[in-house]
């Protein structure tokens, strides 16, 4: 590759935005209300379903010993979701599972009897399912999962994207047979447009964010996400001391936190949330002690995290079971993408998309700041887990930012 195509080095000397969550605590109880959102029975049901889909296997939990030594922690584990079901992100676990659950519920109403999951996955009622249309709003990855699920189970699908979603991500969704409609405004505007159209047309919304009057489907999405956390934590002999999580609407972060709390209770790791600074709805909400909407175009390179409103279900969990929140500029995400692609000695190269690295970026920035290390109790005895939630879901953008293609990095 011509060296002129490689982007120049980026500057990472930036101020750190960090706020403690004074409303939560590591000893906070797991409440009945939270257990109604995510629970062991729901996790088992999701695992039993998804593990039987063609192509399922747990994604790798990488032990990045070289990077851990470089930044000054004892262990650093990176859950690599870049090859999940061939869709390139953890969202394959959520949207498609929610489509399956929604179709099962719809068939039960139409047929007037209980319907097994195998009847959905086996397309036993293809004629009835073909009458159903699912839709959602997306920054890219969730819509791809919903479209994949709709194609797999045989229903129709319409996906709404906002004006800054890349053409490559639009085409990746359309590849699975969905109609893709571009809306004006930001992600939250596309959520409202999807709901409005679904109400008018009699379609079913499969959203990864929740809001008053719309809770059931996002529960299923989040329950699918929890499989990723369960895989990662089950691979560890002892609890990690810290987990750094990228946010977006918060569904993934809440699913990881829920698994940690139910698994370890008061021994759970410290949970630090990481926002893009141009879409820092979790930073604003944690500081206010209530959900706060961030206005504007939410223009961040971390496209999957470009959300201005927190999910109501995620807030119910992370309000009590997170410890701090950070806001990070785009420049740090690009730096970390390159760091993973061209790793320090002893680590394997990792392909990580822009939205995959906010958690790791938060850890690295916290370790650069003496006050942050102290307040988060980070140091040479820390064992940290981060979740690399996507690979090169926009291959051309990845090549532009990193200077290599994903295939070149993996080779």
- Order of strands, widest sheet: 1-10-9-8-11-3-2
Summed over residues and divided by their number, the pLDDT gives a mean of 94
SS elements, strand count? 11
Count every helix, treating DSSP H or I runs of 4 or more residues as helices. 18
Weakly predicted, low-confidence segments: 1-12
Question: What is the general shape?
Answer: globular
Binned, the helix content reads: 40-55%
Number of domains: 2
CATH architecture of the largest domain: 3-Layer(aba) Sandwich
Can you write the helix and strand succession as a string?
EHHEHEHHHEHEHEHEHEHEHHEHHHEHH
CATH topology name of the largest domain: Rossmann fold
Structural category: alpha/beta
Span between termini? 14 Å
Describe the protein in words.
It is a single chain. The protein has 411 residues and is of the alpha/beta class. It folds into 2 domains: 9-90 and 218-410, Rossmann fold; 95-207, 3-Layer(aba) Sandwich (Rossmann fold), CATH 3.40.50. The chain is built from 18 helices and 11 strands. It has helices at residues 32-35, 40-50, 65-71, 95-111, 117-121, 126-129, 141-153, 167-174, 187-201, 216-234, 251-264, 281-288, 312-321, 330-341, 358-367, 370-376, 395-402, 406-410, and strands at 17-20, 61-63, 75-80, 133-138, 156-161, 179-182, 204-205, 242-246, 270-276, 324-328, 383-388. Helix 10 crosses helix 11 (251-264). The chain is globular. The protein starts with 16 loop residues before the first strand and ends with a helix. Mean pLDDT is 94; it is low at 1-12.
